[in-house]
Amino acid sequence: MSTTIIFTVASLSVLGLLLAVVLYFVAQKFKVEEDPRIDIVEAIMPGANCGGCGQAGCRAFAEACTKAENLDNLFCPVGGNATMKKVADALGFEVSEKAPMVAVVRCNGTCENRPKTSVYDGVASCAVKSALYAGDTGCKYGCVGCGDCVKVCNFGALSMDPATGLPVVDEEKCAACGACVKACPKGVIELRNKGPKNRRVFVSCVSQDKGAVARKACKAACIGCGKCAKVCPFEAIKVENNVAYIDFNKCKLCTKCVAECPTGAIHKVNFPEKPAAPAVEKPAETNVNQEK
Amino acid sequence: MKTFSIGGVHPHDSKISANAAIESFPIPEVAYISMGQHLGAPAEPVVAPGDKVKVGQLIANANGFISAPVHSSVSGTVKGIEIIKDLAGNPCKAVVITVEGDEWVETIDRSEEIVRDIKLDSKAIIDRIKECGVVGLGGATFPTNVKLSPPPGKKAEFLIINGAECEPYLTSDYRVLIEMPEQVLIGAAIMMKALNVTQGFVGIEENKPEAIRIMTEKAKAYPQIKIVSLKKKYPQGGEKQLIDAVVGRKVPSMGLPIDTGAVVQNVGTALAVYEAVQKNKPLFEGIMTITGECCPQQKNYKHRVGTPLSKMIEAVGGVPEAAAKAISGGPMMGKAIANLDAPTLKGSSSVLFLTEEQTKRKEESNCIRCGKCIEACPMGLEPYLLNKLAKAGRMDDLEENKIYDCIECGCCLFTCPAYVPLLDTIRLAKANVMKIMRSRPPKK
Total domain count for chain A? Predict the structure, then answer.
């Protein structure tokens, strides 16, 4: 009995030892040389693996950084300038500051502004819904409200507002990874400069319908009248396909266009309101304030 | 009795409008003739606002190989070329015509007399079909002349006329078969001449005994055309299923019906071909079923293309109170109508009203992998697996599992005991996979 145990233990130990030696030499022979800096850079990364940088994940981004000649085309939107500065220091690169971005929902087709024309009872997915038909309102360009953007957000920055039926971006949590931009089948969400003191001016409509049609479908639609473009002193606004677009690189936040817009389609956010109203985050609310 | 070999389901056929004879629907005051009435590029208008047009006059040219010209269905003045909303609410270009009288182009033979002699030769037939804007009226509205010109290297052996009408509720093809059987047979003979084939079949499901009886009787004068009675099973009217059912040949994966030597045309198309070739009448009329249990009147209307659906619905007493959904097409593959003001198209087949109880989706529960969807799939796919892969976004695996073969018949969704919305997910994933496949450079 005891000899069996001794024999078993001894034979297994010898076998283990032998295999360890073999494995040691194999590991030496097939060793993968990896840039040690990859680990250093990866440690700096936020570790969200969101893919917002365009790479497969944080490690892939770190690898790309070590292989790159400069960091011009590499930017981690989640970590932002602080993270990129650390990466640049670790790798000995120069880095230029990039303006922080935020996701902006360019639709103000609330239940009130944009009455429903049909009832959708299919799968609760924007992709499925918009592949089937124009949507349950008169506007085929706006938000269809099934929350695909909310589902893809890794940072919990998006939520659907049940009162308006539109997604709301939490500016604090938004990492500008762009996942929602890709997920939106209507192209309603855009990454825009966060702006000084988080102040932004944007056209909250993407409807390419002609003025009368767009207005009939939605009270808050951009009708492409071009008044904003005329009033803009910085040539930041262009009207194409019946819809105005504000170039955030040219916009100086003078807000002349906001006052000029006849439908209240242009929103300003985080500006101090005159009657001591708190700064508003939701585009929907901004518009209500303007209409008053 | 013949039927296709794999899959299929048996929905209740509900052909409640079967006994309503075809009535001509009054010409509307304003016709909205859409430019996108066929598969392929929308037609290009050739009329300008203020132009006077007659019934049957060309108002838009075909725009590309897979496209069809559009003819006016009314006589009057062109009000304008406007962007209107189609059934799904999407914008589309349309020629709007204010109707004045009913003056037809002189070249159209308006007599009731049946013309049996086929005078034109193969090429002339195909040209005439093309000029007359005939498209497949089985649902896909594929230009008929393209289907009648097999690609080089492929040879048609026989023609199959699709009279299966396997979708529940629809009865327009049935009415055509029993009211105009000879025209359909002559239409078939014309297409056989165009294809240079000697064998023709008309496949009709057994739930239409009257149509089978009349057609068999009339077909005695056309020995090369055989009437085949088929077992009732959905989706027998699918092109690939019908070929399997009638001649027992299977269309290969990613292949076309012509790979089996078959060309399939719908009953309505056969009638349109007859009218185009023998009567010189372009395709500007169609037959539509207005039906539904909640609908007080069941109608089969012959309508002018461009008639607003709302006019037709008014004629049967407006939208029934109990109706929760209006569907264009059958309940299995039809689409819910988002815009009841949309005009009829060449390929419009029905307006079906369903009640809340009939359309309400039951709550989805978990897939237990019972395999019912696999059993029901007429294309031999695994819908439950495709659904899972689609949700995970695994495009490569979807392609490997032949998602592109899906004909979107909805059998899987119909049969699923857990009410998993299989088709919704699969249809979208299929479109995405096909997009990826098309973007690849062609293999050498």
Answer: 2
At residue A45, the 3 state secondary structure works out as coil
Tell me the pLDDT tens digit for each residue of B231-290: 999 999 999 999 999 999 999 998 899 999 999 999 999 999 999 999 999 999 999 999
- Domain B1-24+107-360 matching CATH 3.40.50.1970: the answer reads no
Q: Is the pLDDT of residue A281 over 60?
A: no
What count of residues does chain B have?
A: 444
In this complex, which of A121, A133, A213 lies closest to B88 when CB atoms are compared? A133
Distance from CA of B53 to the nearest CA of A (A): 28
CA B19 – CA B244 distance, rounded (Å)? 30
Helix (H, G, I), strand (E, B) or coil at B45: strand
CA distance B90 to A146: 19
Closest residue in A to B325 (Cα–Cα): A119
What amino acid occupies position B341? D
Res. B44 pLDDT band, cuts 50 70 90 = very high
The torsion angles phi and psi of A211, rounded to 5 degrees, stand at -40, -55
- Residue A151 lies inside a defined structural domain of this protein: yes
Look up the domain containing A87 and give its range: 36-91
Cβ contacts below 8 Å, chain A against chain B, sum to 48
> Which chain A residues are closer than 8 Å to B85 by Cβ?
134
Contact check, Cβ <8 Å, B89/A133:
yes
**CB-CB contact of B176 with B286 (8 Å):** no
Break chain B into its structural domains and give their ranges: 1-24+107-360, 372-439
**Looking at CA atoms only, how far is residue A123 from chain B in angstroms?**
7
Other residues' Cβ atoms within 10 Å of the Cβ of residue B362: 9
DSSP B200-230: EEEEEETT-HHHHHHHHHHGGG-TTEEEEEE
The pLDDT of residue A274 is 67
Q: Report the alpha-carbon angle B181-B183-B189, nearest 5.
A: 105
pLDDT at B444: 58
| A146 and A283 inside one domain | yes
Reported as a single tens digit per residue, the pLDDT across A60-77 is: 999 998 888 888 888 888
**Is residue A205 located within the same domain as residue A266?**
yes
pTM assigned to the model: 0.85
CATH of the domain at A184: 3.30.70.20
**The last residue of a domain, from among A91, A116, A136:** A91
Q: Are B413 and B235 contacting, i.e. CB atoms less than 8 angstroms apart?
A: no
Contact B259, B251 (CB under 8 A): yes
The answer on A83 and A106 residing in a single domain is no
Q: How far apart are CA B289 and CA B327, in angstroms?
A: 11
Does A15 map to a domain?
A: no
Q: Taking CB atoms and an 8 Å cutoff, what residues of chain B touch A209? A: 91
| A72 and A166, same domain (yes or no) | no
Task: Out of A91, A112, A128, pick the residue that ends a domain.
Answer: A91
